[in-house]
Specification:
Helices cover about 0% and strands about 45% of the residues. The protein is mainly β. The protein has a 4-stranded antiparallel sheet, with no helix packed on it. Strand 2 (about 20-30) and strand 3 form a beta hairpin.
Length: about 60
């Protein structure tokens, strides 16, 4: 992706409050879908305690 991301992927472990605030990025597409790229080394697990959330990137994070 050559564009600046529109979203930041963050992970929260609800049982330990451990956070990964830079797990990946997302880009909004013209068809209203979102393309996601996971950061190197990040493993997405199927775990009821893990919460995966896309947050809009604001101007303070270097976004639009």
């Amino acid at each position: 992706m050559s564009r600046t991301p529109d979203y930041r992927l963050k992970i929260l472990n609800k049982s330990t409050d451990e956070r990964n605030i830079n797990a990946g990025a997302g880009w909004a597409n013209k068809d209203n879908s979102i393309t996601i790229k996971v950061s190197p080394g990040v493993i997405l697990l199927n775990d009821k305690d893990l919460l995966y959330t896309l947050f809009p990137i604001d101007e303070y994070e270097g976004g639009k």
